[in-house]
């Protein structure tokens, strides 16, 4: 009976997690910039850095941290892909090479935000990754205002959950990580 109850709670929690995965907002070129000090993008999914650069170019924040950059990637590599003569890449983008995990992203972001004395940041990551990212960032920086900017992730569309095994595995994995993170942050 206890096992069945725990199973139902786990399944119910997972379904609630999937339903509450935030939908990406349409980023319009004419939309006003977000009122934040800076932007942090957690690497790992396509379009995240591009979205963060678009925010920076539109006047959102004064600087951008790209957290979790692969050590094989150089600043020049990223500048060639996301910079250009009329961009703020050279002046206003910082690269973080320390983070290898989402917890590492939170630690790297906390250090950067502390060094720069920022009170508010836009957090750019994929929709399925946002809940755990915000949980970790809020735990590390409870006094910093976090504004989520959700990037579409084709591999995590919740309406594909039951028709795509790879998507289902990704979401189950992310839910398990979220639950573990929640328990760690609540109970140490």
CATH architecture grouping of the domain at 30-153 = 3-Layer(aba) Sandwich
Radius of gyration: 17 Å
Instruction: Please write the string of helix (H) and strand (E) elements.
Output: HEHEHHEHEHEH
Widest sheet: strand ordering: 3-2-1-4-5
The CATH superfamily of the domain at 30-153 is known as HUPs
| CATH fold descriptor of the domain at 30-153 | Rossmann fold
Describe this protein with a few key phrases:
188 residues; alpha/beta; Rossmann fold; five-stranded parallel beta sheet; 5 strands; DUF218; Rossmann-like_a/b/a_fold; Cell_Envelope_Assoc
Set down the secondary structure blueprint.
Blueprint: H1 2-19, E1 38-42, H2 48-57, E2 63-67, H3 75-82, H4 89-92, E3 93-96, H5 102-116, E4 120-126, H6 130-140, E5 145-151, H7 165-187
Helix pairs in contact: 5-6, 6-7
């Amino acid at each position: 009976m206890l096992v069945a109850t725990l199973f139902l709670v786990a399944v119910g929690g997972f379904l609630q997690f999937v339903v509450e995965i935030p939908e990406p907002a349409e980023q319009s070129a004419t939309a006003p910039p977000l009122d934040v000090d800076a932007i942090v993008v957690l690497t790992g999914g396509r379009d995240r850095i591009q979205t963060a650069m678009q925010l920076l170019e539109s006047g959102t924040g004064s600087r951008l941290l790209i957290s979790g950059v692969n050590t094989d990637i150089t600043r020049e590599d990223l500048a060639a892909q996301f910079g250009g003569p009329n961009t703020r890449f050279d002046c206003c983008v910082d690269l973080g090479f320390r983070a290898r995990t989402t917890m590492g992203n939170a630690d790297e972001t906390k250090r950067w935000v502390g060094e720069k004395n920022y009170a508010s940041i836009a957090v750019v990551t994929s929709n399925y990754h946002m809940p755990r990212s915000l949980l970790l960032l809020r735990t590390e920086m409870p006094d910093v205002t976090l504004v989520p900017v959700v990037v579409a992730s084709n591999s995590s569309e919740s309406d594909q959950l039951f028709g795509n095994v790879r998507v289902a595995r990704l979401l189950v994995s992310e839910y398990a990580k979220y639950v573990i993170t929640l328990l760690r942050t609540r109970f140490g």
